[in-house]
Amino acid sequence: MRGSMNWSVIAAGKSGGRILVQSLAREFGPQGVHCAHAIIDGGIDEPEAAHAADNDATPDGKLGPYAIAEAYWHLHIQHKSAWGQEIDLRPFNEKF
Fold this sequence. Notes:
This protein is mostly helical. The protein has one domain. About 35% of the residues lie in helices and about 10% in strands. The protein has a two-stranded parallel sheet with strand order 1-2. Helix 2 (about 65-75) links the parallel strand 1 and strand 2.
């Protein structure tokens, strides 16, 4: 969606993945295949990452695994008359 300082190493690949999903959606959507791109933009709150600081040390400053799973489930159960092609998940306090 946007490039950020210190993340140029993955910028081209990430934007390429987004365009690939758009192409796949146009190719396979008519056959009933739902193709979508998920952007997980932030740290994930999981026990092994307890040593990593939250986003500004704010409660809920990292993405909750269950919240991510809910978003994916919602994408999965969408009615084909209103398929979403992209979800963009980030913590509430992310600095744009």
